[in-house]
Amino acid sequence: MAAEFKHLVLVKFKDDVVVEDVLKGMEKLVSEMDSVKSFVWGQDVESHEMLRQGFTHAFLMTFNSKDDFTAFASHPKHVEFSSTFSTAIEKAVLLDFPAVSVKPAV
């Protein structure tokens, strides 16, 4: 079985952005896309400014396979949302990777 595929996005929103509106749009997008296995997001509340380098929010999507991610990334709804999303962010880091599972020692 192929490894799950992850799409991680770290962002710093522009100061004048209504973050809740962006989050609603992202949640709507994900709910309409069957290829997304799971979606979680959070806002940093613990890290020191120096360590987080200005990034405030993290978004993590899980897909069953790289093919599912590729289909999601090229889907017209994602392309449309991405253009809106990119105008709301000051900076971002994206990482797309196959998940590596490690069994904990017993």
UniProtKB/TrEMBL annotation:
PROSITE patterns: S_R_A_B_BARREL. SUPFAM superfamilies: Dimeric alpha+beta barrel. Residues 5-97 form the Stress-response A/B barrel domain. Homodimer. This is Stress-response A/B barrel domain-containing protein. It comes from Sesamum angolense.
